[in-house]
Amino acid sequence: MTQAGKVVLVTGVSRDLGRRFARNLADDPAVANVIGVDVTPPEGDLGAVSFVRADLRNPVVAKLLVRERVDTVVHMSVVATPGGMGSRASMKEANVIGTMQLLGACQRSPDVRRVVVKSTTTVYGASHRDPSMFTEEMGPKVMPRSGYSRDALEIEGYVRGFARRRPDVSVAMLRAANVIGPGVDSPIAQYFRLPVVPTVLGFDPRLQFVHEHDLTGALRHAVLTDVAGTFNLAGDGVLLLSQAIRRLGRAGLPVPSFALAAVGSAMRGVGRSEFASDLVNFLIYGRGVDTTRLRDEFGYTPRYTTQQAFCDFASSVDMPPGVPGLAVAEPLLAGLEHALTRTPDVPVRAGGELDG
Amino acid sequence: MDDADIIPIGTHGAAGRGAGAKPSKAARDLLGGQRRAAAPRPPRDADVHPIGVEPPVQQPVGQPGESEADADLAAAPVASPTSAADPLAGLDAAAREAIEAADRRPGKRPGIPVAEIVEAFTHAAMEVFGDDWERKTAHFIAFLRRRITGEFEIDDYGFDPELTQRLLMTTARPLAEKWFRVEVRGVENIPTTGGALIVSNHSGTVPLDAVMTMFEVQERTGRHLRPLGADLVFRLPFVSTIARRGGVTLACQEDAERMLNGGELVGVWPEGFKGIGKPFAERYKLQRFGRGGFVSAAMRTGVPIIPVSVVGAEEIYPLVGNVPSLARLFGLPYVPITPFFPLLGPLGLVPLPSKWIIEFGEPIRTDEYDPSAAEDPLTIFEVTDQVRETIQQTLYQLLMRRRSVFG
């Protein structure tokens, strides 16, 4: 088998982000072949990607790595919600055991040269003792006991172990902030699609988002380059939850923290597990990460800032009809401001710039 | 429909309850002498009356056709004032259009007289902003709009300069100028550019000394002082939100160095809760200065340390007691008892008007130390002690200067 380019194995292609990333990667001239692996078949078009239906916990993957002489593995099947899998236990099983098996298979394979893992900034947790911006060498201030952040933390531990055992393989771990964009269906995206957005009374957390294009862009950069290490991936700047809700033109509904999960779940008509404790903590304390290393060492600069990413998402969200919000007052204020600034003898810049 | 004339209510006679057989004087006046025409009572429907203004007078009392009157009521407030003194006259056509368009919006409650609101608004604006009210009001409205649409800027720490300027500083000003009559010394010691660490004593049960220092620094140098707060601040609802908006961040090595590297003016109160929650009897006695983390942060970033001594804050809420059991229950460092709180309830929350002096001391340079000094506990303790001694000595001197607590 003569190889003109990289042979890439991508896990988690049944979900939208994984599918689009794999498809996008298959079009790259430097990549010869892309193999997508997942337990369920993808819903959309996979393009030039060859799909293998397999569970990561299955020895099929190890055989596949050897047979296809895969040199790059992109692991993005760590999921935040049980979704179709049912319970939290099976989610943990798929996340943690799946990763262990995949890394075990990579360790055996003589051809693998590059492993890219999509992790999450959730590993930093969210608490009142957090610094304003996490850098890559910091850990969570309060250890998560369960849930997605715990899974991600354990997975990262296994990935570091793998990197130690196979020093010839360059391992890159991308800790992505909450991915958002018109096509994203994540817990946080679902949260912002609620007609009235429940918030925690008295808290206004700082949020950070990364646009879906930047996630795929950064993963692609990771596949095509050879920089090893852990990197935070997030759009520039932060957005307050209240700002985000207002940009959506929606109303926030402040509830006490213990009621947030119940209210959120009731509104969406889903089980409580969808409103996991790490999401609740995130909506109380928020989180910010420093992306200096991403730019300087990894060599990728996100195209969207946090604000731009969120605005792009907001433009895809339909306004719920008849929901009262502060937005009603906006045209009136706009009219008044316009009137006042247009009065001829008063020179005021149109924007109503503040000068203290 | 004729012009409605305004009839003052309840000024021409003894107040009547209007509950008996005989209508009150005010009620008789309202009827305009046509009482005997067996007037049907106006509908007591709260929805029909404009909110917050006098109910429009139905002139032809006793006219048949109650339903027609109803329809008129909804239309009247918008139409009638335009014929008399038109409060919209001052605004140009575009404004009028915008206002009327807003009024026609679906889902708007019927009968809110926009014109009257505008008039009231105009007067209020003139009252508040003075002659230049149009420009200033426009700015204020622009500010409100940005709040509503969420289009304001915050930095990575969640600091909202605009809100701080508008709200925090505006409320702090009368407190600083009129109530505490803060006297500031040594402003020239605050660098006008670049990072610096302002280290101050802490007192007063409620961290008003931090607010006042922030205000004075902003007022006199135009720079924002960015305080470092205890983690408790970020655990409390509302407090955490206000603190982040006001520029506070967590007092930890990472944040302190990040801010100082960013060239910010950072404020730290190393005594923490030991200082702010100390009994009144121990006033002006500096507490322990922690582990000197602030010194190592300053050394690593090479910024000067400016010792600040605040006199006056100790007397605003004299802490005479504590309720440790309650404090434990709520996870707070202390629950204060002052001579007036909780005795006088909310009135006890009014701070005593002590006379304040804030002195910014001479900067202590840290850039001359070896980079490894930041890891050397002895050097750290030495510098910490130096800062502490400076503040303590200055406090004694300032106390001698002050004629009396309330002078």
Automatic annotation (TrEMBL), chain A:
Q: Which domain of life is it from?
A: Bacteria
Q: Which InterPro entries match?
A: Epimerase_deHydtase, Lipid_A_modif_metabolic_enz, NAD(P)-bd_dom_sf
Matching entries from Pfam families are given as: Epimerase
Annotated NAD-dependent epimerase/dehydratase domain residues: 8-187
Q: State the coiled-coil residue ranges.
A: none
Official protein name in the record: NAD-dependent epimerase/dehydratase domain-containing protein
Instruction: Please name the source species.
Output: Nocardioides phosphati
Organism lineage reads as:
Bacteria, Bacillati, Actinomycetota, Actinomycetes, Propionibacteriales
UniProtKB/TrEMBL annotation, chain B:
Region described as Disordered: 1-73
Name a Pfam family for this protein: Acyltransferase
Q: Which organism is it from?
A: Nocardioides phosphati
Q: Which PANTHER family match?
A: MONOACYLGLYCEROL_DIACYLGLYCEROL O-ACYLTRANSFERASE (PTHR22753:SF14), TRANSMEMBRANE PROTEIN 68 (PTHR22753)
Q: Which CDD domains match?
A: LPLAT_MGAT-like (cd07987)
- What InterPro entries does its record include? Plipid/glycerol_acylTrfase
Q: What lineage, starting at the top, does this entry show?
A: Bacteria, Bacillati, Actinomycetota, Actinomycetes, Propionibacteriales
Q: Which residues form a coiled coil?
A: none
Looking up SMART domains in the UniProt record yields: PlsC
The name of this protein is Phospholipid/glycerol acyltransferase domain-containing protein
